[in-house]
Amino acid sequence: MKDFIRGLSRRTVTTFFGTVYAITLLFALFPPFYLASSGIRTPVFGIPFSITYWILDAIVLGLSLWAFYRVEDIRGELDENLPVAGPPLTGE
Fold first, then answer.
1. Residue 63's CB: how many other CB atoms inside 10 A?
2. HSE value, Cβ hemisphere, 13 Å, CA-based, for 18
3. Burial of 31 (0-12, 13-18, 19+ CB in 10 A)
4. CA distance 13 to 75
5. pTM score
6. Closest Cα partner for 34 from 56, 48, 50?
7. What is the predicted pLDDT for the residue at 49?
């Protein structure tokens, strides 16, 4: 699986995760989606569906951010070795 992830182009990875982010943000920010679900009276684990809608949207967004971090870690694209800062400016 790691070889498959390393073999993907950067454009493919960013397009995939960008699409996931766009869809979750669309569900969070586009009122007709929320208003369509707010009329559902079925509770999910005792929570009204309109609140579960927001919780599920946040979970999907959080998991996709975590997955993007893992993919960048596997591909070696994280900025973990930042250059050391120079001496602090004293203003003298």
1. 12
2. 6
3. exposed
4. 10
5. 0.72
6. 50
7. 79
> What is d(CA 76, CA 92) in angstroms, rounded to the nearest whole number?
41
| pLDDT of 70 | 93
Q: Residues for the chain: how many in total?
A: 92
Question: The tokens of 10 are what?
Answer: 């950067």
DSSP per-residue codes, 56-85: HHHHHHHHHHHHHHHHHHHHT----SPPPP
Residue 18 confidence (pLDDT) = 94
Low-confidence residues of the chain: pLDDT under 70: 37, 80-83, 91-92
Q: According to the model, what pLDDT value does residue 13 have?
A: 92
Residues 81 and 64: their CA atoms lie apart, in Å, by: 24
Residue 47: helix, strand or coil by DSSP? strand
Q: Which amino acid is at 23?
A: I
